[in-house]
Predict the structure.
Amino acid sequence: MARCKNCSAVLNCKTCACKACGLGEYGSNEVEEVIEAHKKQIPDNKPKMPSMFQQAKNFTKAVAKHTMNGGLNVPKNVKESRMDLCSGCEFLSDDRCSKCGCFVDSKTNWASESCPIGKWATYKPSRGKCGKCGRK
């Protein structure tokens, strides 16, 4: 529980203001200090990352697959589609995937990679009917 710096009363979580002395009320200069003190009391709800060992293992496998695939990157529209799917994912923590620990910006760009929970698959370029342009 956060306490008032002025009178040590328990702060109201809904307003971050002290009901006893008024510290932190709208318009007072102590609002920022009270809010910061209260934020420290709120538990961090970010998804937990895999262990450093598991992240290193996942990254090594991803680099090996990317290298064996000739370092092929996906087209811009595919990367944007993958990023859109990741941006709404419950496992996105800042700019990283909490399932595998990868940096999403890099992972979505590599053709050899897939989402660890199946939201998008590896990219296989198609040559199209004519065999050259990639169109169907």
In short: Residues 1-42 form one domain. The chain has a mean pLDDT of 80. The longest helix spans residues 52-68.
